[in-house]
Design brief:
The protein is an alpha+beta fold. Among the domains are: 226-286, Zinc/RING finger domain, C3HC4 (zinc finger) (Herpes Virus-1); 387-622 and 632-723, YVTN repeat-like/Quinoprotein amine dehydrogenase (Methylamine Dehydrogenase, Chain H, 7 Propeller). The chain has ten helices and 37 strands. It is elongated, with a radius of gyration of 58 Å. Residues 299-347 form a coiled coil.
């Protein structure tokens, strides 16, 4: 290490005080203390003018009696001495001019005490090995102000470590170092501690500033990341050699940069970003004045999530509907089981009481045991529950009965028949059959020709809608037994039904395949006509499906069945209907019946060449979801179960699909002309449950319930038979 320079007065032997230098320089210049010495350092470009004051000989002598102290403490103690006495060099007005060695100034923390312009600060200079040299020709004049001293202190404290100084040789220098009064030592220590805290705070501030600057620069680089070449980190251009270009993998570079990159790597060239194989022919120039890519990856993922959520929601709604149906079935079975259990407990208690006093009566115990066995069989399952014949009622002696309907408010069945007194009251009407006493009560004349359809609404106002071949549909009040409204359709009417969503509208199926819509508030004519989709065959059956909160089939409308298929008229609003062709067989359809709650329909096909027997097909209605605004949703049906009967079907019979009285599913009942009976199937398993005999072919079937008891009525040309579920 080169010799250090100390800017402090040194006591000489002659009593004068001069500025101490390196030991060799101080001893050599002791004889000529009045001449201002100039010490030149190689490579120095900074000139500092300093004024030095001499001390009194008394101060120098007292300093020799002070115990040895550190060099830094001695340096600061000389400031107080310099204030009291002036040096001979200052008195003579000869300033000392020195050239300083280029480098950093190293200050100890104790050197930042209150500065004195009369005495120069202590400077310890060492060559700077790691600091860049200033530009050539630049000069800096150092003042002795307080701000400059503090700036030098921060720079030296952050850039260099403290240097251990060797004590200069010579007794005079040692004596001068020891010149520190005891009173000034405490003052120097306190000021040095305060200056050390200030220097530490300044060094912490100096460390925070580069960190914040680096964060700002990194954020700025992230923002401009998409506008610079990743090879040279320069902005690409729209023209020239460094124009925007891309590889086959899609990453962007400057043209010259990527070309040199691939050329340097040779055959094993790869993309600098993704390391995919690339070659010079893969470079594509992009003609974009300003390239910006909209990041829609999150939007696409949200769309996929929405579609997946919608599909899962539809599936969940379908499963929920199925589980609700199963829950209802289980609840009904549980209620019946609870009731039968109570009956069984009561019977067991009664049997136990009767067996104790009369143990000699085996007939009573045997009868109780038989009752207990029959009741236990009922508890075991629903296999023993079936329809049993209750009563038969003669409706028409001459025959001619056709359709059947049940009026719930009056608890009576209505069967169509010709007038029993054709000479007095010609035409056709209906006969009331009370289900309370199982007797026919009275006949109501309505139409002049055969009646083909009967229907009641949901308002329980006992208003009967009837359709006949006399080109009319009529509304008859069963409370007053009079016709209250007549509509002339102009053609024979084969079927009719009520609108279950709005009781002001009724529908009539004509012989030419059209469906007329009537408003009961308008007594003149029909309000709308629905033209047939295919052939103009008679509408043999007409049923209305009400709207429901069902995910599979939520819409409402009319299902019309003709001899050559069926179609569904979806009711969009009160005046708009959208047609949907049902995928049924081309011919042989005789009847379509609907179960409104489960949204199932029963289609009956007469025997043909491909199927030699009567078939009843249970279909489930469904609706495809709407894909977009241009494509409308379509309604269709899919087969669930097929039931086969006899090989004869000459009449247009009407069948029934309804809920099982025990709540365990649905039942299907259809007339079989070959055996003159009504066949009962389980819709779930497709198994034949019962065969209800009849004397003539069964033309119509109607299930109903009265006071919690379930019945099934079958109609032939003459008779009405009632069966009870037990």
């Amino acid at each position: 290490m080169e010799a250090m320079e100390v800017d402090s007065p040194v006591e000489l032997q002659g009593g004068g005080i001069v500025q101490p230098e390196v030991a060799a320089v101080a001893v050599g210049q002791a004889e000529d203390a009045n001449a201002p010495p100039v010490i030149s350092d190689s490579g120095s470009s900074t000139e500092v003018e300093e004024e030095e004051d001499d001390e009194d000989n008394e101060g120098g002598q007292s300093a020799a009696r002070v115990p040895p102290r550190l060099l830094a403490t001695w340096a600061f103690s000389q400031r107080a001495v310099g204030r009291a006495a002036a040096t001979p060099s200052a008195a003579q007005g000869a300033p000392m001019r020195r050239r300083l060695r280029q480098g950093l100034r190293l200050h100890y923390p104790s050197q930042t005490a209150a500065p004195s312009r009369g005495f120069p600060d202590f400077l310890l200079r060492a060559p700077a090995a790691s600091v860049a040299e200033p530009e050539s020709g630049s000069t800096t004049e150092g003042s002795e102000s307080e701000d400059e001293a503090e700036g030098d202190e921060n720079r030296t404290a952050a850039g260099m470590e403290p240097v251990n100084l060797a004590s200069p040789a010579g007794p005079n220098l040692n004596a001068a170092i020891q010149h520190i009064p005891p009173q000034e030592a405490s003052t120097t220590n306190s000021s040095s501690a305060a200056d050390g805290e200030r220097t530490e705070a300044q060094s912490q501030d100096g460390q925070l500033a580069p960190a914040s600057l680096a964060s700002v620069q990194s954020s700025h680089s992230e923002e401009s990341d998409g506008d610079t070449c990743t090879i040279c980190f320069e902005a690409w251009t729209t023209a020239g050699e460094h124009r925007l270009s891309a590889l086959r993998c899609g990453h962007l570079f400057g043209f010259t940069c990527i070309q040199r990159w691939l050329k340097a790597q040779g055959q094993a060239a790869k993309c600098p970003q993704c390391n995919k194989k690339a070659k010079r022919s893969d470079i594509v120039l992009l003609y974009a004045p300003k390239l910006r890519a909209l990041d829609n990856s999150e939007q696409e993922s949200l769309k996929k999530s929405l579609e997946q959520e919608q599909s899962l929601r539809r599936k969940a709604e379908l499963e929920s509907a199925q589980y609700k149906l199963k829950l209802q079935v289980v609840t009904n079975k549980y209620g019946q089981a609870q009731q039968e259990l109570q009956e069984l407990k009561a019977l067991m208690a009664q049997t136990g009481r009767s067996s104790v006093p009369s143990s000699s009566t085996p007939s009573a115990s045997s009868s109780s045991a038989s009752l207990l066995l029959s009741l236990s069989q009922r508890v075991d399952g629903s296999k023993t529950l079936q329809y049993s014949f209750s009563k038969g009622v003669l409706v028409s002696q001459a025959g001619g009965c056709r359709v059947l309907s049940y009026c719930e408010p009056l608890s009576c069945l209505l069967a169509s028949q010709p007038s029993p007194h054709s000479t007095l009251v010609p035409g056709c009407g209906v006969k009331k059959v009370s289900v309370v006493n199982m007797k026919a009560s009275q006949y109501l004349p309505i139409h002049s020709k055969q009646i083909r359809g009967l229907s009641f609404n949901r308002q329980n106002d006992s208003l009967l809608l009837s359709a006949a071949l006399d080109n009319t549909i009529k509304l008859t009040s069963l409370l007053t037994n009079t016709v209250v409204q007549t509509y002339n359709a102009g053609k024979p009417v084969w079927s009719c039904c009520w609108c279950l969503d709005n009781s002001n509208y009724v529908y009539a199926g004509l012989t030419n395949g059209s469906v007329l819509i009537y408003d009961t508030r308008d007594t003149s004519t029909h309000v709308q006509e629905l033209q047939p989709l295919r052939s103009r065959c008679p509408v043999a059956s007409l049923s209305y499906i009400p709207r429901a909160a069902s995910s599979s089939f939520p819409c409402g409308g009319i299902i019309a069945g003709s001899l050559e298929g069926g179609y569904f008229w979806e009711q969009v609003n009160e005046t708009t209907y959208r047609p949907h062709l049902l995928p049924l067989e081309a011919s042989g359809c005789t009847d379509i019946q609907v179960e409104t709650e489960s949204r199932h329909c029963l289609v009956t096909y007469r025997p043909g060449r491909s199927n030699p027997s009567l078939r009843c097909v249970l279909l489930a209605l469904n609706r495809t979801p709407q894909q977009d605004s241009s494509q409308l949703p379509s309604c269709s049906c899919s087969p669930v179960q097929t039931f086969s009967a006899g090989a004869s079907c000459k009449l247009l019979t009407k069948n029934a699909v309804f809920k099982s009285p025990d709540g365990g599913g649905m039942l299907v009942c259809a007339g079989d002309e070959a055996s003159n009976s009504a066949m009962l199937w389980d819709a779930g398993s497709g198994s034949l449950l019962q065969k209800l005999p009849a004397d003539l072919p069964v033309l119509d079937i109607s299930p109903f319930s009265v006071n919690g008891e379930h019945f099934l009525a079958t109609l032939t040309e003459k008779m009405l038979k009632l069966y009870k579920w037990e």
